[in-house]
Amino acid sequence: MQARFFSPLGKDVVKAIFLVCLADGLVGISYGSLAVAGGFPLWVPLMLSLLVLAGASEFLFIAIVGGGGSPFAAAAAGLLVNARHLPFGIAVKDLVGSKLLSWLGCHIMNDESVVFGISQPTHEKRKKAYWLCGAGIALFWPVSVIAGAYIGQFIPDIKAIGLDAVFPAILLALIFPALRKRRTLIPAASGALISVAAVPFVPAGMPVLFSLLGLLAWRNKK
Is-contact 150 28, C-beta < 8 A? Predict the structure, then answer.
């Protein structure tokens, strides 16, 4: 039944979503390992992965608290990093469902589910892609955090493995075909340059907000 529900997406889209979820899982392993190695009990990263479900703010929370900072300051920093979810919510307001279902639909909203959702050609496909990616990450992320916490006990230096580089590498591979078009390349390149320039001046996770300014480089020519 589930296979028939998502079949309109096509094998390529489903495969791409699976790869992104898998990449998220690899990052989750790194996150779980770092959290436990930093002295946190397993329930802390696990509850964050279930209730917050936002990797950047979770990494930030662990880093701030692990470095001796206040949990309140860490939570505030996480909210700031996740400010990008406000425009995301506007973009996918017709994909999250209605009434009680919309609460779950909003909870699984993340960068990846939004991208897959809004990039599909029809409303039906947008909604299915959004939910498949969001639900997939909501499953992969906490499971991988548990796995990472277990694996981290046997790895002397988890940072040396470089698992945090897997996720952006896979995302980059997925967007390469779209970058062949000038209409996509110019805003993407502009956004990347703005984001990199903002890195020294803003908190971690914020440069992605500035990258949205790259959209101003695109003009719809008739």
Answer: no
Dist. CA 45–CA 62, nearest whole Å: 8
Which of 150, 162, 123, 115 has the alpha carbon at shortest distance from 17? 115
What is the chain's mean pLDDT, rounded?
81
Please check whether residue 194 is in contact with residue 213, taking contact to mean a CB–CB distance below 8 angstroms: yes
Q: What is the pLDDT of residues 69-92, one digit of tens each?
A: 788 878 887 787 788 788 888 889
Within 10 A of 146 (CB to CB), how many other CB atoms are there? 16
- Report d(CA 163, CA 69) in Å as an integer: 25
What tokens were used for 183?
A: 């209409």
Give me the torsion for CA of 183, 186, 187, 192, rounded to 10°.
150
CA distance 6 to 131: 10
Return the pLDDT at 221. 45
- Evaluate if residue 152 carries a pLDDT over 90: no
Q: Is the dihedral angle over the CA atoms 112, 51, 30, 80 positive or is it negative?
A: positive
pTM of the model: 0.71
Residue 11 tokens read as: 């094998």
